[in-house]
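Thread: flavin mononucleotide complex, take 2
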Amino acid sequence: MTIPFLKPSSRPGEEQHRRVVRLFISKDAAAVAVGADLIAAAIASSAAASSLPVEITRTGSRGMLWLEPLVEIECDGVRYGFGPIEPDVLGSLLNAGLLRAELKRLIAHPASLGPVDKIDYLARQTRLTFSRCGIADPLSLEAYRALGGGKGLEKALSLTPAAIVDEVTKSGLRGRGGAGFPTGIKWKTVHEATGEQKYVVCNADEGDSGTFADRMLMEGDPFLLIEGMTIAGLAVGARKGLIYVRSEYPHAIVALKAAIATARRVGLLGPDVAGSKRAFDVEVRTGAGAYVCGEETALLESLEGRRGIVRAKPPLPAHKGLFGQPTVINNVLSFAAVPFILSEGANAYADYGMGRSRGTMPIQLAGNIRHGGLFETAFGITLGELIDDIGGGTASGRPVRAVQVGGPLGAYFPRALFDTPFDYEAFAARDGLIGHGGVVVFDDTVDMAKQARFAMEFCALESCGKCTPCRIGSTRGVETIDRIIRGEDRAAGLTALEDLCHTMKFGSLCALGGFTPYPVMSALTHFPEDFGAPHPSLPRLRGRVREGGCGKGQRERTRGRNQT
Ligand SMILES: Cc1cc2nc3c(=O)[nH]c(=O)nc-3n(C[C@H](O)[C@H](O)[C@H](O)COP(=O)(O)O)c2cc1C
Ligand code: SF4
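Output below.
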């Protein structure tokens, strides 16, 4: 890579025994995708050519994706950031004395961000789960421990399995994979179940649009996930854990495998976890790229070597899961929240949040947004604060028109609903869901009829085919929306679409078919103008969405189907 305007870095007669300059650059896939490897290599070769003692630590991500590649330098214990550092900016940063840590000159550089901890986006977060991410080498167990890692497991080893389950229950932690089911109750069920061999399965399929928190955590703090899963194993009496990672996450797979090997080597995994005489080990399994394989029973089918098709419940995976044995299935973020709960106590976690949404949520800001990235905060922040204030509005500079929260099955919210707090119940009350915390922003150029069509098309493409409302309904949905868009007997089309959504919501076996009506109906309810002339039955449509369709009754039923 060429670095324009780079002057020679070493000066004649410069003392040889300088202090080592410590730099930090993320190796997270999102940073690598915008050139972080190239920047790190260019800095390393420049340091080598100048014989300057520079140490570059490749870290996880800070989650401020619009600032990547982000280069940090440590001076007197403070980390100063510079970003985004494109190749054409790097030359001037090096010329400003990066390799000699000439702080005064560096701070005056146009890409200077000041102390990283003080950047508003980071300073305003409550990082309980992502507290270490972006700080150190994710594969250094030493760094993990120095930054507080391992204390949760230590505490868990001093408790009985039932006491661990109690602590998780008291924390109020709810599954972060989408359904929001209380983690403690799930663990209790498996703890009380009998089986020759119990399993702990981590759902790292992360297929929701605009989400990347699982990936960021697996790449940026893999020991945390291993610790959380080990605690789950101790709690429920499982000796075996499996992490089901989507194949599109090669960096995460490499990081996890390396961290598992280290954990085995030092005895944190294996037949005698941390000298406790209790066994637990973890393996990584790679998915084959189907969205539905994120659904827990389809995931189990896939893990067992079959095509990912949803299983009817009961039996719940907690009773008969992997290979028919009692199985805990949790999302990456659910497991990753557990070490904090154990080390700091259930109350310390439950003190954050609102209502029945306790603790923090790693929210992922994506789509057309200026400051896209990961923002971990206590439940309760409003959608408007997230989009306008934290996210800085759209990247295009145009007005925000719609926001889809909760992945491809989540509702579209118009600006009028921006006062909705990030909370499971508050979103549900407005016919939405927070799901895995993905927030995708659209500006005023979006065509919501096309988005509704996309939702149906996505469902048709990803349907496992087991039940008719989803398998056939989604294709009929695409055809119906096409007719509406073309203006062919729009009134009849809208009525048919409404009925179809109703059937899918109430007749589908899992949330893929059952929740696809959320984006469709919310687009129709909040943006009727994109579907042509207002339809006489729209007020009734709204009523029905609240009552049953996307409303509480259906949500409770679908959540019930999702429970383990
Ligand atoms: C179509 C579909 C896709 C899903 N994808 C995921 C996923 O990628 N990751 C995930 O953790 N949960 C996903 N879920 C939810 C899981 O079925 C399950 O509720 C979750 O793994 C339980 O873990 P939790 O309690 O920690 O959230 C999906 C559900 C459905 C219906
Ligand atoms: S709703 Fe769709 S994905 Fe779910 S079981 Fe039925 S066909 Fe399969």
